[in-house]
Design goal:
The structure is a homodimer. Chain A has about 260 residues and is of the alpha/beta class. Chain A folds into 2 domains: about 100 residues, 2-Layer Sandwich (60s Ribosomal Protein L30, Chain: A), CATH 3.30.1330.30; about 140 residues, SPOUT methyltransferase, trefoil knot domain (Alpha/beta knot), CATH 3.40.1280. Helices cover about 30% and strands about 20% of the residues of chain A. In chain A, the strands form 2 sheets. In chain A, strands 8-7-6-11-9-12-10 form a 7-stranded parallel beta sheet. In chain A, helix 5 packs parallel to helix 9. Chain A starts with a strand and ends with a helix. Chains A and B meet through helix 5 and helix 9 of A and helix 5 and helix 9 of B.
Chain lengths: ~260, ~260
């Protein structure tokens, strides 16, 4: 196993750069915590580096990870140096450095999909990915203006689903919508059908939008189906993650 | 209108104490931002104090609030002093000081209810309240160990629903469950019925639990109905807010 003993180690300097550019395109990303690292390994992949707090490697969770890693990717660090690479207050003694899977957008999009139109909050975006994966969706298209899908907070709230999905960022949703072979469904409050009174298609591009402004009017105009979720008057609207959960699982209910 | 000009103003000192004890029982709380303040006023209530950034009161949103306030509760402050009372980076120039409504737990609980069993994350708790309100629920019971319902983050993600609900904190859910007249429903992964194959009761106490550990075994043992949400194998579980949205709106779908 490699070891890093000081800040001046060239690999450490490189790691620190990657940590600072978290979520930027084509840069390696740092996975925090045992659960995310396990999820990554469970897909049969190996990280570029697996960084461990050298004082904790006998802890069962960490030892379990090490068993499933090639020796050449493992690297031991003093606790303080590892903590400097971390975004959480109490780290679990491990960070993986991985390359985000680069997915190429197929010319024919004919699967059930999640489309994110300027969804801002990283926690919401991660929860949306997790909910979509739970509903059986494996492809996500995100517009420019959506929180970076590979940022630490999105990874954290995604709980490891990233590595089993095809994720496309900085997509011109309007351009893609014009060539779409499955129906485009938007959630909106005006001139919309009641979710529970519609026969939903088996496959669709489900668009969920900005937390305050909702889905862009240009996408609403192109939609094959406008959906609203009937709710009590006590609220103006549902949180975007709640709305997506209700829609995607109603579709699942109708077609299982 | 009152004015506060320095940190040494006695009212300012008091406000600062309340800000620091945010969410503690029986203390006034500070509402941040135009939307929450509007939601509070919309219920016909008046705050104890309405604090405004003295340089911004002609902005339309703030002027709109002032129109609906008694003059004696309004108070103008320099921007810096107001910012010191705020939990957000870019304030909207207004804070309301209000007393949380103290709800007394009725002896007979026969409405549809949300029960929170050690739900930790304030963002999740706020979203759960908002989703429950959207589903028509007005009563929430929270165990000790659940994030404080009146903390700034819960208020923010609740988006103003707090003021129209009966919220009960630090409740011994197990004790209340033993005297319950409506069915207790828990979401759990083992020995549970498929949500979409069950006839749900019109009224129930819906229990959602700790993000990692789920609902306490003692509550599961008392439940009239155990529910699981059938999902794709790509995830271990759903986020608690997604699970609640799916369950509460499936009940709404069945009974509207």
């Amino acid at each position: 196993m490699k070891t890093i003993e000081s800040r001046s180690n060239p690999l450490y300097k490189q790691l620190f750069k990657w940590q600072s550019s978290a979520g930027r395109r084509d840069e390696p990303i740092l996975l925090e915590g045992v659960h995310l690292c396990e999820a990554f390994l469970a897909l049969g992949r190996q990280p570029q580096y697996a960084l461990f707090d050298q004082t904790r490697i006998t802890e069962p969770h960490l030892a379990g990870l090490i068993e499933n890693l090639s020796e050449e990717v493992c690297c031991l660090l003093p606790a303080g140096l590892l903590a400097n690479l971390s975004n959480v207050d109490t780290g679990q003694g491990v960070l993986f450095v991985v390359r985000p899977a680069v997915a190429t957008l197929p010319t024919h999009l004919n699967a059930n999909m999640l489309w994110l139109d300027r969804v801002q909050d990283p926690g919401n975006v991660g929860t949306l990915l997790r909910t979509a994966a739970a509903a059986g969706i494996t492809r996500v298209l995100a517009s420019t203006g959506t929180a970076s899908l590979w940022s630490p907070k999105v990874l954290r709230s995604g709980q490891g689903v990233h590595f089993g999905m095809h994720l496309h960022e900085h997509i011109d949703l309007l351009a893609v919508a014009r060539t779409l072979v499955v129906p485009l469904i938007v959630t909106t409050l005006s001139e919309a059908n009641d979710l529970f009174e519609v026969e939903l298609p088996v496959q669709a591009a489900w668009v969920f939008g900005h937390e305050g402004q909702g889905v862009s009017q240009s996408l609403i105009d192109l939609a094959a189906l406008r959906i609203r979720i009937d709710h009590a008057q006590a609220v103006d609207s549902l949180n975007v993650t709640a709305a997506a959960a209700i829609c995607l699982f109603e579709q699942r209910r109708q077609h299982r």
